[in-house]
Structures
1.
Amino acid sequence: MKHCTSCLLPETHETITFDSNSKCSICQNFNFKQEKVNWKRKKTQLDKIISKFKGKYEYDCIVPFSGGKDSTWTLYYLIKNYNLKPLVISFDHGFFRPNLKENVKKLSRNLGFDMITFTPNWKVVQKLMLQSLLEKGDFCWHCHTGIFSYPMRVSVEKKIPLVFWGEPSAEYTSYYDYEDIEHVDETRFNRFVNLGINSEDMYEKLNRTVDIRDLLPYSFPTKKSLIEIGSHSVCLGSYIKWDVKKQVKIIEKEIGWSGDEVENVPKNYTYEKIECYMQGVRDYIKYLKRGYSRPTHLSSLDLRNKRISKKKALKNIKNFEGKKPHSLQIFLDFVGLSENEFNKIISEHIVSPHKFKKIKKYGNKLKDHNFWNKDGKMDKKESKKIIKFWKNQNEYRNQKSKSRYIKL
Ligand SMILES: [Zn+2]
């Protein structure tokens, strides 16, 4: 497999391209951010946006909030520097870890803000996870779409036009670069949030076994409704230089935010993706599909920032990647699959040139593992039905494309 000569990311990374020196597009974006972005000018733009919206609505803005380092920083920054009155919206994907809840409490007591937490129907979430795994080899459709859509729906309902997200995607991928301000709108939603499946598609894929209204929290508001409220939805990181390690230090010191271990990730990365107890499964799937996972990703960020040596990065990768997470069994119960069925599904989503390989060895078990809620398993009969319908649909589609081919 080809890897970036600077940051070691492999060619199976989403959106990656390489220049003639085998330097990747994400590294090129990064250099642009370091050298050419006029952050002073961007900050003035931010001042203007805020003065345009502040004090004119029920709330000054909406801050979608996961409790992770980025949304925590966003909230902290906006309240401390601009004294904004935000409405904080948290979408409960179902897998919040105990430490996350503690962090949220500390933050809200320290800063003071109103917050809405929305928890979608678990029975629907389970079906969405299985269907999304079958379709894309990624079970997080409900989370990707819910986190983005639900706060936007609230902004429309409550007529609060300004929405502040955290980091821009240029930090990790090259869907956008730092030259343009990344508007968090439907284009962005369809480009890389919803895996190419919208709610109506999902409704049909689930053979209409859920109520169409159950999918509303996952549907982006209509363009018309957003224009009507004068929606302005942007990432704070498009206006101020995003420096995760520095930001984490500040929120740790000022509000007592605390990091956590993540399954199969080196112990010094205790600030990333600590909000979800299914993260280990998510990273595991990435490894099975693309031949790399979070240790490579985190090391690539540190390499770009010149914080570690290549030798250290390679050691991280060797010691922590390619291990089975203890959360896997919990996940399999939630979606009614055996491990063999799971492996078979994943093997259909391999990103070339990586090849599927079964993994037996387990990684580290986290200290809060026993506190993760395991209620709400999916009945095997139910998952069998979903898989059967998916297979039939696929056969039908394949036949259709074959017959079209013959006709041509
Ligand atoms: Zn690179």
2.
Amino acid sequence: MKLNMLIDDSAVVIDEFLPNDLLKQLADYKYIPNKASHSNWNSTLFGLTDSPTKKSESYSACLNEVFVNEGLAEVKIFKGKKEEYFKDDIFKRLFNILQTCPFYPFPKDNYYFLMGMYKYQQYSGINWHDDGESSLNFTIYIHPHWHKNWGGEILIEQKDSHPLAIGSDPNRLVCIKNFVQHKVSLTATPTPRHTIQCRLKLINPNVITDEMIREDVRAWSKDILEPINKTLKKPRCPYAGQAWKDNKVRIEIRQKDKPYQEQLDEHLKNLDFAKTDILLFCDPHSKYSEDKAVETAGLYNEKYNKDNIYFLGHHPNVHGNSTLRYSMILVQNFTDLVKASDKLEKTGFYTHFKADFYSHTVKRRKEIYNKFFKKN
Ligand SMILES: [Fe+2]
């Protein structure tokens, strides 16, 4: 591994990056392109429109196709919890080399990493753009040979000078920081410009995105509600798995700028129980306790039980493995819920629960239901 150059605080070029055996394995791997990227003619490649790309809008600026094989590796580590997938051991080896390279800062925690393969056909290139939110973007050239007149150079914007051109030398790594403008100039040869492309995105541990909550809720159901419980000899929630399968779980997340009640009321207005078994309203903005979530659900029950809607307050991080803090209100059709609960009761399901859970939740719920809906 040889450090070739550091460009301002923007990019790093390293030569002889990989051991030869790994380089060859990466080049010979049978990639299955799952996408043809940037396949449309885009005249901005020749500057014919006056929108030199500030953002990635004219990213798709190729004369020819770039074949892409995405999903070769995916690593997410958030607050010490690691999830990783490698399509093959060679990608794991490459990831380990990238991670331990001393010439750029690779974080230890709170990031999301993706790896893909790009194969540029003749006359392909990418216009000026930056990689937006990606914190570090890696290109590794895995073709065995590249002539300097074959094009495909990466041009990188420099602070006080003209752009710098980096040739596509085999076994070179180019690492570019986020928000640094760069482009790939046209390739001029039928030999494909063959690269491994990786993106590393930092996750701010203090910011909880909607996507993170959605994933967390799904994981909570998968890990806590759906597996067979030894004592119950059934899943904790025997209906959860099917509801996800039928696509009948709706997750809504409270947005910061509007009051809680206004948003939940809005979702209730267009809640159709023919399409939705359960609505999960998650709130990452008010950091209250589970008791408070239960209390809020109680207030909603008082208001909406008569309309055949039942609410349950919950905090996934109290009982689950979640590292995120948010509260959750589960909204279900009252009749469906009571019917399902009656069915479970007949099987002796609730005998395994604590007596106060049965009397405070199951029995009480049934009493309220009967008060509103049981015909005498
Ligand atoms: Fe890029």
